[in-house]
Amino acid sequence: MQSYERTRLADNFDEQSFPAGSEIIREGDVGSSFYILTEGECQATQLDESGGQQAVRDYAAGEYFGELALLRDADRAASVRAITDCKCILLDKASFERLLGPVKEILARDADNYAKHV
After folding, report:
1. In the chain, what is the greatest distance between 2 CA atoms, to the nearest angstrom?
2. What is the 3-state secondary structure (H, E, C) of 26-82?
3. Confidence (pTM)
4. What pLDDT is stored for residue 106 in this prediction?
């Protein structure tokens, strides 16, 4: 990316902090943002057959989540909770679709990695 493109993209991100233990996204909610974890650790969980939460994925700084609901125009497939104090940069759905249109194919391809959990 050229400097102008990086600046344009960065201008569309918001930064948000989440204390350890807080819920960032909730399974079943409407997807409204795409998250990139810049600091901390998070864990994705899904409801199991008994109604409990089952861990399905851990996230570290530099990883992203929340794209599946936006790509599929579906509700959140999992909950994500901050394990440690976290900072994320996020894009709202409209910005995600406008700015990341060219990389949607890559995100959709990577979404196949979630197939066993969704």
Report:
1. 50
2. CCCCECCEEEEEEECEEEEEEECCCCCEEEEEEEECCCEECHHHHHHCCECCCEEEE
3. 0.80
4. 64
